[in-house]
Amino acid sequence: YGFVMGGLSGMTLQVFSSAIKVPLLYILTLAVCYPVLYVVGVIMGSRLRFLQMYALILIAIAFNAILLASCAPIILFFTLTGADYNFLKLLHVLIFGGGGIWGMNGLWTGLEAMCERSSIYPRQAFKILKIWIVVFALIGTQMAWSLRPFIGDPELPFVLFSQDKTTNIYQDVWRAGSELVFPKMDF
What ranges do the domains of the chain cover? Predict the structure, then answer.
């Protein structure tokens, strides 16, 4: 997916950079978020081992990756047909968001099935999982913002990481949506 994501800029470096950054995004987000889920689970009485819980989360990330890969032809189509930079940026946000929801639903379902069959997890811990999913999403979006650019603006030179620290991802998505709906007029 990262190869296709970086294709808009037309720069080989952006294509390869994005191909590395997309998996890195998930690895770093998991490294930041997983310890708290495991520790809080143990405190709440979970008998799931470290690797059992980790495997469930990796399955959720794999679900997400499958959805991203299946959407790559859609991104490629819009990239090749000259879609607007802001449109593509918002489309990526929607695809990543949809993939995240699908992946976390897989995590929830898998954990629920494992716990009910084995009686190894207290039911109140699912409240903690809900909170963790929100934390994972927030950390993931901020991690993506920190690793940007993924798409690469075709009007700007290649940079590995953006140095602009004046906005956050939520402001940028709002701005991109506003510019897409209300384009600036050149007179």
Answer: 2-181
